[in-house]
């Protein structure tokens, strides 16, 4: 791989900006009509638009089509899963490496068309596996997919290239059993953003290069599940699988104007997922709507106890039996006040007290204030809350409490990462690089800098520190201390103190709540909330965030196993706002390939 020098990066950025400007001057007859409100913001006008139907063809617009939209066309025989796969492959070809070079997708499956044909044949025989039958999705490159699909599982690193996994991870096995087609592997931050201490660019992997946002040239896609989120935002698949240790589902969902849920630890088996921390790791789905992530969550959830992941052994009986999360979340209930009777907490003035710490833009704060009112309008009683372990962030004692979780977290992760990675590699059938432990991973980077450490992406400090760790009683104590800070003194304590069912907060900022939820092993979901103003100055460092009209999200979190509640709240907010529909990717990043070009003309 060629090194990215400063001069070549400038050329790349100028070319991308030129493509953006050229695309902006091109008419797009399928573009959603936007209405300007009195406060100079844009919103989708439902009277003027059909969000998911291409007005020229009558087929679903693949930029915004959801699972139900695709199932409708498939069940009516308007197109096949083979044609759908071909259309998505065309979109990937347009904008992934070509065009703006989003680099959201590492590789596509040579078996995808074969799988689609098999599912089409089942449909022709009157069989349906459910809402995911024949729907293509993408999977983050740290989640194992069987060799029969013809793809790698490498966490973005050449170290594991051409290694052979034992088979699909349980979550991929159940997705395929539910009828999902694994279209390809998504790019990610190498080793899930846990390789370096400095100069580890978000969205970069040695195998995939620099992944960027579909909403701004060279925009920051955020965190390690970046490719999974960008692909959904750009319509390269209708949904995808990501993973989160601390924010790697919630932050990309927020930055990319989509929905993402990180479930309770133990709901989805981590077996077959390249690990960082068995205390905090979880896979989870991305999609454009809350209902769609519920469909994926239903399929991904492990039913019962997986011998390969003891966190699943903690499932309550009702969870172990299996839950239809779309049904359990009451999406079909038509109520004027869908949140009536709910009492929700929200982070209030203290959360925004010190702008130098919290660094929320005025437009984000205004969007958050409006969101609180939207939830009130949906019937919820809104209660301002303060977490004991965050409290007033201008108070040094409270700041120290928050920072203490970072100190314990780092020591915990690095110890668990060494054990977890070596255990994962030991389970592989083949490892052509002959790397079998963490020391080998570090040495492979040193020995192959042109592959693993190009340009300024040379730091392996996090891996090196992890190499020095050993499991001991102190690490176990850190785990329990983190639970106490995040549960009793954090989210759990606030839920009890204020008698609320869930807590609402912005998904972004320097002090978001999702790291606390992650340490507590609690579920958290992010939905689109709003956008930065169109006068926002782009961030100083590549990849850039914020930038003009940058998306930002709203999060909901609660205790373990409350996914149906969080989905219900998020769905009510989503249906009242439809924030996502008011922005499309920048013109050069919007693929033009649609199903119409694939489907043969009717006789």
UniProtKB/TrEMBL annotation:
Highest taxon listed in the record's lineage: Eukaryota
InterPro entries recorded: Amidase_dom (IPR023631), AS_sf (IPR036928)
Protein's recorded name: Related to Amidase family protein
